[in-house]
């Protein structure tokens, strides 16, 4: 029987977005900067398996970067747990 410790979840954090033509993207080299549509105080979006689960703020943890969760998104009533066959 599997435990929660054995389940992997893909976590993604989106800082912002930008639109540009492909030719401009292909000309970018090392050190190029892409302007994002956010300011430094805006929340980032936290996704688990491509589903928005939270918002947060970027924090510095020594030499590492982390996310401080500011809001947990409520699950839609339309989202139901996946059913499995047989006993759990």
Note the topology.
Blueprint: E1 11-14, H1 22-27, E2 44-48, E3 51-61, E4 64-72
Antiparallel strand pairs: 1-2, 2-3, 3-4
InterPro entries: FliN-like_C, FliN/MopA/SpaO, FliN_T3SS_HrcQb, SpoA-like_sf
Organism: Roseibium limicola
Family: Belongs to the FliN/MopA/SpaO family.
Structure notes:
Keywords: Cell membrane, Cell projection, Chemotaxis, Cilium, Flagellar rotation, Flagellum, Membrane. One of its GO terms (biological process) is chemotaxis. It holds the Pfam family FliMN_C. The chain has 88 residues and is mainly beta. It has a single domain, classed as Roll (Surface presentation of antigens (SPOA)), CATH 2.30.330.10. It contains 1 helix and 4 strands. A 4-stranded antiparallel beta sheet has the order 1-2-3-4, with no helix packed on it. The termini are close together.
Give a short overview.
By secondary structure, this protein is mostly beta strands. It has one helix and four strands.
CATH homologous superfamily descriptor: SpoA-like
Mean pLDDT: 86
Tally of contiguous helical segments: 1
- Per DSSP, what share of the residues sits in E-state strands of 2 or more residues? 25-35%
User: Mind telling me which CATH architecture this is?
Assistant: Roll
Portion of residues in helices? Answer: under 10%
Q: What is the N-to-C order of secondary-structure elements (H for helix, E for strand)? A: EHEEE
Flag low-confidence runs: none
Total E-strand runs: 4
Q: Describe the sheet with the most strands.
A: 4 strands, antiparallel
Query: Which CATH first-tier class would you pick?
Result: Mainly Beta
Radius of gyration: 18 Å
The N- and C-terminal alpha carbons lie at a distance of 9 Å
Strand order within the widest sheet?
Answer: 1-2-3-4
Number of domains: 1
| CATH domain fold name | Surface presentation of antigens (SPOA)
Shape descriptor? extended
Keywords: Cell membrane, Cell projection, Chemotaxis, Cilium, Flagellar rotation, Flagellum, Membrane
Subcellular location: Cell membrane
Domain Flagellar motor switch protein FliN-like C-terminal: 5-72
Organism: Roseibium limicola
């Amino acid at each position: 029987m599997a435990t929660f410790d054995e389940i992997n979840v893909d976590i993604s954090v989106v800082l912002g977005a930008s639109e540009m033509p492909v030719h401009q993207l292909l000309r970018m080299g090392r050190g190029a900067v892409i302007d994002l549509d956010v300011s430094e105080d805006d929340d980032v979006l936290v996704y688990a398996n491509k589903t928005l689960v939270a918002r947060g703020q970027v924090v510095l943890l020594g030499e590492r970067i982390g996310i401080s969760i500011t809001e947990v998104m409520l699950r839609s009533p339309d989202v139901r747990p996946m059913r499995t066959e047989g006993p759990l």
